[in-house]
Amino acid sequence: MANYTTKDIKELRELTGAGMMDVKKALDEAGGDRDEAIKIIRLAGQKSLAKREDRSAAAGLVAADITDTDAGQVGVLVEVNSETDFVAKNEKFVAFADSVLAAAVSSEASTLDELMAATTPEGKTVKEAADEMAALVGEKIVVNRIARISGEAVTKYLHYSNKDLPAQAGVLVATDKAGAEGAQDVAMHIAAYQPQYLDRDEVPADVVAKERDTLEELTRSEGKPEKIISRIVEGRLGAFYKEICLVDQDFARDPSMTVGAFMKSTGGKVTGFARFHVGA
């Protein structure tokens, strides 16, 4: 008879994020010794790392940090993924994500490659820590992306779509000092309305050209007179900008004005933003 209880299984499963059968198997092999069982689970995970490469890691969390600087503030946003929500809410995984965020902040990484090579507070590279976490929980673990923005002021917003899970969406908003007062409302707007660009100047020329070509083709197919096609297309481009540009979008808190108009009413302006949503 195995020298462990149902409580032992539950605790080890919560500690490692491993499946019930994997936990029972490890405890059986370890004769009920929890520390030895953890080693067995970790070793089994290391052996199966290659097998998990093709799996989808669409669960996980978003974490953010804001640091004061001489010039203002810097915000960092990271997304860390797992295969299942069960692992995403595990304390070990959350602590790992916090460690990744700390490495991103201390290293001043701005690209994923820089982040993966950065050192965590525990003295390992982020890549090494990710591999260890994958081995421990038996799932594919991905440090997916990082964003770093700076400004006179930076505001963060983390959205929890499920009370049982960590933050599934995160937003950073950079503003001038005057705009800081309204930045939280703008951050919440960004989380919900998902703008792709700050303003029209940020939209790449090739994106605009492609949309203009599509609108011209659509307008001609509707039988519109050639002499007014360009005017119709420009009007429709305005709707396109309204969909993808933050300052052109109707403000969530007051749709009678745009986000740009709202910020102008505060005497400030948005200078940049970043938005992550888990798995998107």
UniProtKB/TrEMBL annotation:
Question: Where would you find this protein in the cell?
Answer: Cytoplasm
Name the Gene3D superfamilies on file.
1.10.286.20, DNA helicase RuvA subunit, C-terminal domain, Elongation factor Ts, dimerisation domain
GO cellular component term of the entry, any:
cytoplasm
* Boundaries of every Translation elongation factor EFTs/EF1B dimerisation domain copy: 75-279
Predominant location category: cytoplasm
Q: Which domain of life is it from?
A: Bacteria
* SUPFAM superfamilies associated with the record: Elongation factor Ts (EF-Ts), dimerisation domain (SSF54713), UBA-like (SSF46934)
A GO molecular function assigned to this protein is: translation elongation factor activity
* Pfam families with a match to the protein in the record: EF_TS (PF00889)
Which residue stretches belong to region Involved in Mg(2+) ion dislocation from EF-Tu?
84-87
Keyword terms of this UniProt record? Cytoplasm, Elongation factor, Protein biosynthesis
Family of this protein: Belongs to the EF-Ts family.
Described purpose of this protein according to its UniProt entry:
Associates with the EF-Tu.GDP complex and induces the exchange of GDP to GTP. It remains bound to the aminoacyl-tRNA.EF-Tu.GTP complex up to the GTP hydrolysis stage on the ribosome.
Tell me what this protein is called. Elongation factor Ts
Gene encoding this chain?
Answer: tsf
